[in-house]
Amino acid sequence: MGIDSQTAFATKRLAPAELPEQSLCPPYDVREEISWIDFSGTENPFGTPRSFVDAMNQALAQGVLSYQPDREAHALRSVLARTFGMPVESFLVGSTVSNMISAVAQAFEPCVVGVSTPCPVEYVLALGNTGHTVERISSPASFITPDATLLDERNVRIDAALLGNPTYPTSRLLSKSTLVSYLNRCDWVVVDERSIELTLGGESMAPLVRDFRNLVVVQSFSEQYAMPGAHVSYCIAHPETIAEISRFYDNSCVSMFSEVLAEPASVEHPKLDGVRGFLYSEIPWMQCMLSLVPGIDIFPAEANYVMCSYHNGGDLKLAISDVDHLSARLQLEGFLIRKLAGTPGLVNNGYFCVAVRTRQENERLIQALRRIISPSR
């Protein structure tokens, strides 16, 4: 006999978190006809390096898609070893950042994992789907990740931690002393550094893996080299830690592009200093300009994106009612922003995030915001 629909429904699991609204992504076949400027992502404002595009085009022309990729990613791991001055065995290559976080999480027995919120929903999904319990850790001020020693005062007990450096969407850097406080009390700690090269002087925590075998740092090409359509990410940890994670890791997600882009990455990595030099002045400029737009409040940013809130109140009688209205009007003007409704740790729908792009693009967005939000008459 078949299972009735009510019984079948009862066997389904509850999702660890509700998915927030996804940013609008037009189909491939119509993108050439749309002139939107995308402020919803966190990628390098200088775009994908020409050397990356050339390497991928050449590989595709030579029939690279007809070959199985090297699941061990020997070429890329060798380049990363030279770049970071660490053994090849200190690296594990995969696709997305959430893929790497899941790889780490599934290597450990289910436990209570502290996550500083607000945070990306994929943190909660990656941990919940591998059997862990998420303990949300709220920030005391300005969304800075609190020191682990403060958790005792809040009667918070955690076994592991997942932290951002910088955090998303709050755009705050993680201090070394704060990370060490978690390393000293947790069985394992993962630090998401997908945007570390796109910050105001942010310092990678990767060198600490030499001294702390319970630390795993995750980085990604997607943000650093503006290639969200071809994910290449990797874990950095002590070789023994990588070996333990590898025991449970399905490396079938490793792409051929991890081989194709290995050598170009070794050449392009030093050029990221030029991006950081640009962001050193552009991030503060963007914050200042956004804060001058009526109805918009900004939160301190240390990476190439700014979290904002919007409210239509007081005597101004602004032309935009809320963030949904703002997003829709900006689309009509040719701009995409990231609405943050549903983000774990944010209690209402009044928040959105704006990327820091080139000065010309940033000026166009600011002008559009002033034009559409200005008080109605």
Number of strands: 13
What coarse outline follows from CA principal-axis ratios? globular
Q: Please give the CATH class of the largest domain.
A: Alpha Beta
Question: Rg, please?
Answer: 22 Å
Task: For the record, give the distance between the C-alpha atoms at the N and C termini, rounded to a whole number.
Answer: 68 Å
Number of domains: 2
Spans where pLDDT lies below 50 across 5 or more residues: none
Helical element count?
13
Question: What this model shows, in words?
Answer:
The chain is an alpha/beta fold and 377 residues long. The chain is built from 13 helices and 13 strands. It has helices spanning 5-10, 50-61, 74-84, 97-105, 121-128, 176-183, 221-224, 239-246, 257-260, 262-268, 272-291, 323-333, 359-373, and strands spanning 37-38, 91-94, 112-117, 133-138, 160-164, 188-192, 215-220, 233-236, 296-298, 305-310, 335-336, 338-339, 351-355. Strands 2-8-7-6-5-3-4 form a seven-stranded mixed beta sheet, with helices on both faces. Helix 6 (176-183) links the parallel strand 5 (160-164) and strand 6. Helix 12 crosses helix 13 (359-373). The longest helix has 20 residues, at 272-291. The chain starts with a helix and ends with a helix. The mean pLDDT is 91.
List the helices and strands and how they pair.
Blueprint: H1 5-10, E1 37-38, H2 50-61, H3 74-84, E2 91-94, H4 97-105, E3 112-117, H5 121-128, E4 133-138, E5 160-164, H6 176-183, E6 188-192, E7 215-220, H7 221-224, E8 233-236, H8 239-246, H9 257-260, H10 262-268, H11 272-291, E9 296-298, E10 305-310, H12 323-333, E11 335-336, E12 338-339, E13 351-355, H13 359-373
Parallel strand pairs: 1-11, 3-4, 3-5, 5-6, 6-7
Antiparallel strand pairs: 2-8, 7-8, 9-10, 10-13, 12-13
Helix pairs in contact: 3-10, 4-5, 12-13
